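Severity: low
Component: inverse-folding endpoint
Summary: output formatting inconsistent between runs
Steps to reproduce: submit the following structure tokens with default settings.
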């Protein structure tokens, strides 16, 4: 006679072992996958930190250059205003001299 208990034990034990192994392996792979994702995120963060630091240095350098250009521009504007005042003063002086000589020539 066929003993169903022994047949069931021969079938259930391997199936239960396979299911248990599958569940444990799935958890293990899930944990490993999560760990790899965390490693990838950390690497990505390091890359972004380096990019931000590099961009910060570039911004600082450009800001310094911009400030130097502004200072030079201010000096040039001041010099330009001064030269315009001198030109206007000289133009007035020339006009006055022309008027003086025209008046002097017309009276003689």
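Observed output (run 2 of 3):
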């Amino acid at each position: 006679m066929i003993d169903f208990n022994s047949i069931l034990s021969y079938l259930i034990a391997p199936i239960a072992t396979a299911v248990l192994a599958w569940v444990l392996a799935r958890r293990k792979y899930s944990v490993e996958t999560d760990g790899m994702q965390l490693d990838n995120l950390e690497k990505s963060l390091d890359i972004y930190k380096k990019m931000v630091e590099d961009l910060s240095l570039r911004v600082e350098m450009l800001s310094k250059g911009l400030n130097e250009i502004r200072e030079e521009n201010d000096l040039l504007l001041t010099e330009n205003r001064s030269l315009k005042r001198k030109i206007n003063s000289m133009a007035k002086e020339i006009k006055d001299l022309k008027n003086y000589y025209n008046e002097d020539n017309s009276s003689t």
